[in-house]
Write a structure and sequence with these properties.
This protein is mainly α. The protein has 12 helices and 2 strands.
Length: 279
């Protein structure tokens, strides 16, 4: 049997010297870390009791006889074009229109929000302040507001998701611009170039792949969000889900959700594959 290798001393013959190696010591957890963890756990338990969260009640939900109404799924009704397919196509149309509008507006706004490409300090502060307010308002509120203003239908949903797309895309795109290499931009400015031509030639070519990738990601979000917005009358497949829920046809609701899950999964896989090629 060969003797175990020595770990305490290493003989470096090539260098003509002997070096000593030791294993790194395991990091010790400070008492302050345990105190913070205990406080977080205690506060979580207290907050759960305040809002009425009870694990035993959670498990009792699964014994509710309402779950029996989710099965079997009426596939003949689900696969009917007028019941599900047409509203699903409307959902695609809402997502496409809102993505194009939101991402189109996000291109100049995102450039104005970045210190690297903003024309001046005033534009930078104003655009950031406005977009912070827009981002603070959830998409469901925009849908409710626009449904009240223009009526129930896909038009309100398209505008609500356009605002949502703008808020998300501006945040992602402006951060991508912030991370761009400033040297081409500085060289063009040193040569006496004007602001817009300098930005167009020095920054846009480097961030356009990320812009397209983020646009695909926003399209995925809009497909999911349109399901929720339809619950408040903003059109799309969500309106079908809400109508069947009101009639207590939970078997049809489950069938629609299965179709939506499959469609969203396929779109997500295609989008991920495209984004990997772009970025």
């Amino acid at each position: 049997m060969n003797p175990p290798p020595e770990t305490g001393r290493v003989n470096d013959r090539g260098a003509g010297r002997t070096t000593t190696s030791s294993r790194p010591t395991r990091p010790r957890i400070r008492p302050r870390t345990w105190i913070v963890a205990a406080l977080v756990v205690a506060y979580t338990v207290a907050a759960g009791r305040t809002v009425g969260f009870n694990p035993s009640t959670f498990w009792q939900v699964w014994s509710n006889p309402l779950w029996e109404k989710f099965w079997p799924i009426p596939w003949d009704w689900v696969m009917d074009r007028h019941n599900v397919i047409d509203p699903l196509i409307e959902t695609f149309q809402i997502a496409i229109v809102s993505t194009i509008l939101g991402c189109g507006l996000a291109l100049p706004v995102g450039l104005a929000m970045s210190p690297l490409t903003s024309p001046n300090r005033v534009v930078l502060v104003v655009t950031r302040s406005i977009m912070n307010v827009v981002r603070a308002v959830p998409d469901l509120f925009w849908a409710k507001l626009l449904v009240t203003a223009v009526g129930i239908g896909a038009f309100a949903g398209s505008w609500a998701l356009s605002v949502f797309s703008l808020a998300v895309m501006v945040k992602l795109f402006s951060e991508a611009v912030d991370g761009a290499d400033p040297r081409p931009l500085e060289a063009a400015r040193a040569a006496g170039g004007r602001h817009m031509p300098v930005v167009r030639t020095g920054v846009l070519p480097t961030v356009l792949p990320e812009y397209v990738a983020y646009g695909l990601y926003v399209f995925e979000l809009n497909i999911r969000a349109s399901l929720v917005l339809g619950l408040v009358g903003a059109g799309g497949i969500g309106r079908v889900v809400e109508a069947q829920r009101q009639y207590f046809r939970f078997d049809r609701v489950l069938g629609v959700l299965v179709i939506v899950f499959v469609v969203v999964f396929v779109i997500e896989q295609v989008s991920v594959a495209i984004r990997k090629r772009l970025v």
